[in-house]
Prior knowledge:
By secondary structure, chain A is an all-alpha fold. Helices cover 60% and strands 1% of the residues of chain A. Chain A folds into 3 domains: 26-121, no CATH class; 122-270, no CATH class; 292-620, Up-down Bundle (Fumarate Reductase Cytochrome B subunit). A 3-stranded antiparallel β-sheet of chain A has the order 2-1-3. Chain B contains 10 helices and 10 strands. Chain B starts with a helix and ends with a helix. Chains A and B meet through α7 of A and α5 and β6 of B.
Amino acid sequence: MKIEARQRRKGFRAGLLLLAVFAVICLPVTAPAAEDCRFCHDEPLYRVDFNHSIHAGNGCTSCHVGITNVEKHRDGKEKPAPVNCGSCHQEIAKEYRNNFHYIQEDFRCSDCHRNIHAIKQDKNKNIKLAIIEKCTECHGNSDYTTSGHGEAVLKGNQDAAACSDCHGHHDTRVFHTSLEQYPVEARDFYTQKCKRCHADSAMMKRNNLSDKMVTYYEGTYHGKVQELGYPAPVAGCGDCHTKHNILPKEDPRSSIHPDNLEANCGRCHTGFHTRFLSYQAHPDYTDRAKYPALYVTFLLMGALLVGTLAFFWVHTILWWRKVYWEHDRMEREGIVPPSAVATGEGQQQVERFTVKYRIMHVLLVLSFFTLVLTGFPLKYAGTEWAQTITRLWGGAHMAGLFHRGAAFVLIVGMAYVSLESLRFLFPRGEGKKGWLGRLLGPDSLFPNLKDLQDFKGMIRWFFNKGEPPKFDRWTYWEKFDFLAVFWGMFAIGGSGILLWKPEWSSYLVPGWVMNIAALVHSEEALLAALFIFTIHFFNTHFIPNKFPMDRLIFTGTYRLEELKEQRPLEYERLIAEGRLESMKREHTSIPLKLISATFGLGSLLLGMFLTVAILWSILFG
Amino acid sequence: MLVLLVALAACGKPAEAPPPWKVVDASTLRALMASDKGLLVFNTMSEIECLDHRIPGTQCLACEEIESNITLLPADKDQVIVFYCESAGCYRSCRGAGAAVKAGYRQVHVLDRGMPAWKQAGYSMESIERIPRGSIQSVRASALKQMIAERKDLLLVDVRSEQSYREGHIEGAVNFPLYRLSRSYAEIPLDRTLVLIDDQGFRTFLAGSYMEMKGYRVMRLFGGMQSWQEMLAAK
């Protein structure tokens, strides 16, 4: 028995030795097992609750790293390193690095996840409610918890925004909104948060809300400047709806309740009449019952746009077809147009535009391009090209300043042309006498009966039914160009002046007129830009016998043979009135030709680029 | 004419003098500390805040106490000294680096954007005496004004510096500057609810957690004195 016992003891010792060797070789710094820890840390939390927690599969030292020897730890010689949850939860740790609570107050995981040893996964847990409860431990925001989103969450709505839906969860941003620091970044950030849910059709439908509010907001000046990404101080969602007290307008506590609107708008706008408040922050143009005036304007502007463009596009295509085919015929038959082989007097340069009108056209071109390049990025705020152009201007605010500057140039030009027109009709010395004759005469830009006949003649010519009509000084399409700018100036200029300083405009018109003005301004601008870039450019420059451009408006003169060919009636009049001699000019100098060609071709190319950008935005934007 | 005036006005504007210390970014400071174990780096927050969390291997020296403890700095005026604090904002009330420059130190550095930059770079921190974060309710200025009128058990504790307190404080507030609160808190009675007040509301959370740890009931003023003054101005 003794031997057996001794042998067993020997075996036991050998076993122990083996185990020790194994331990030394294989587990040189093996952490203590959980049972070792629980020998001292024997609270039920570690003995029972932890084993049922979500982290139960981990040993104590998975988190409390740095303990290699229980005895040393027991004697206080070895302390665990701070817990690094990020060694497993890497993504969250990365996000958390920029969390306001970490940056400012050095919050660690366990400061919010306090009961970490007993934490369980509960599929039925109301996460949103738990988040609200956690945040309001410190942030006792009664504005939020007693109204709007907070109230809905507390009533069980799982769609309504809890704190983390707007402020971030582990990536709570450092905006210091209480100090009004980073107002631009904060506005952009929170506006995106609002849009994320309020543009979600399924979610909005479930909650009996409109899913179009974001689209309508993005259609307004506020929304467009915001979306452009170079924000001037315009209203984001929270500026009107406030940050936490978000309530429907029927609620007297709501910032958008009619009684509170003056104070609400007054936080950004000053010096307005109370009728300013009828401005619609996100109207639906297609809602006939709710916004009848906007609806009618929308239809009328749409019809004007489509009607004008369709009519002139067809006209231009037919014209181009005729000229191209005609060219082809002449090429085949070896016929050369007389203006191309003009000799002698046919080579003589004749003035069509005086220096004054050439300068005015250059100013018109420059101001028009400035207006298009500053206005259209706002119209198509969401596109890359719009954002690039705005960046080149130095931001939306600078673009706005240039827009107003160019508008001023155009308005002055328009006033001057009006004055010139009056002088033309009522020249000094003659008074009212014969004004009707001058208005409908061949030197006037006002349409007359001959224009109708010319139009019919052109259509007949397009369809090979006759010779082209003989024109006098102004063709009917040139008259349309002139009058279209005139009409456009009333529509765009008038609406633009109203929108220039809407607070002052509210002393003239109510706020909802500003919605109409914005719509008219935008649609008329689209019509003007597309008309100039497609119809005017084609009729005047890209038509095959003038391609790629007609320098006439910049050099001011053309050959006598061209005058005879293009405007025979004017030529006959000049001969009859004996004025031709006084209109003869020297041949254009090389510098002027070069400048004209560069400026003209540059304008045409820029216009083509903008046309592609605009059409692309309409079709795919 | 107008353009000329604007141009003249722009020329007349005096250029801001550069600060008399050098700015060092977080990664450079980390490299410097790794290569020079004896580099003197000071956390200029209060002792409470500094012991709660600081950059490893740095020392606590509250900004307000640098001038009176200037002997703690090395005798060699050419030795490199680095100062840092919780954020860019804490320089407004006290510039620790300025005191060192005034004392004649020529190699004074400041950590660019303070501890937030260090944290955002992902570098570790150390805690000597970490304060358990409490649930410190913050009250807005307007609500506090109402509470002062209605409740008798409040004690307003202004934790700003003595100078800021002297320049103006909420009526009835007592001054216990944060930089020496760890030594003076016991003078505050335990039977009142404290409302902690600082400059901008960023420093009362940790101070509040500390006081809660010491057995006090604590609230704090959201946005600090700045929001209180804004509230008064708005009215």
